[in-house]
Amino acid sequence: MGYFIGGSPRAMANQLMEGYILLNRVILKKYSLSDLQVLKSELGKLLREVRSQQPPLEDTHAIKQRNRRIQKLSSSLSMIESYCAERHKL
Fold first, then answer.
1. How far apart are the first and last CA of the chain?
2. pLDDT digits (tens, 9 = 90+) for 17-36
3. Dihedral through CA 71, CA 52, CA 14, CA 39, nearest 10?
4. Tens of pLDDT, residues 35-61
5. Residue-range domain boundaries for the chain
């Protein structure tokens, strides 16, 4: 298992969700395909968890924060998937 920023795949997924880490190809290059699959599964679990939380309709700040988290997790997932597909072709 590779070194994940934050110590574990779950911690790295949390940091991605909060915006402390921004993924790019340079960061992804450090990880093997199996490490990226583990990170992808953690991001998926966290995405399901965030989607299951429904803030009250009057709390616009909480709704915006939930939508930002969903967007960050979704974009991280799609970036990892495209990077894995590209690396798998090589």
1. 22
2. 999 999 999 999 999 999 99
3. -80
4. 999 999 999 999 999 999 999 999 999
5. 9-89
Q: What is the pTM of this model?
A: 0.89
Alpha-carbon span 61 to 45, nearest angstrom: 23
* AA identity, residue 40: K
Half-sphere exposure of 39 (CA within 13 A, CB side): 35
Q: Report the largest interatomic distance among the alpha carbons of the chain, rounded to a whole angstrom.
A: 50
Instruction: Tell the burial category of 15 from Cβ atoms under 10 Å away from its Cβ (0-12, 13-18, 19+).
Output: middle
**Which residues lie closer than 8 Å to 42 by C-beta, 6 or more apart?**
9, 10, 12, 13
Tokens found for residue 60 = 């616009």
- Distance CA(47)–CA(70), nearest Å, equals 6
Amino acid, res. 9: P
Tokens encoding 30: 């450090």
